[in-house]
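Progress against Task 2.4 (sequence-to-structure conversion) is shown through the following example record, which the project officer requested during the mid-term review.
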Amino acid sequence: MSLLQDLPPELAARAAPGAEGSSEVAWSKPDALAVLAHLADSAATLGGDVLSRSGGRTAHTYDNWYCQRIDGESWPSYAQRSRAAAEEYVRRYPDPEDGSILFVLTVSNGA
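Structure tokens generated for the chain above:
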């Protein structure tokens, strides 16, 4: 699933490059929460990674989360539960609010 194509253009434009050498995109805390809210009905959040920007470089902190689908769980239930887990993780993650912390979201539409 291409995350950027499903977002409003103004939100997609705020995506930051991920860690050096990767093709991932990352989001500030407020933007990550906005992405999760926008994708609420269309995607599950499989997990994510936390990145740190310092001295012009972006790198993985090796902090992350994931949410596995429970056997027999419907896709809509999993999407809702995984989004709630992602929102909780992002909200609770310590952030100095100086743009140094970014979140990579791994999402799927179940296809």
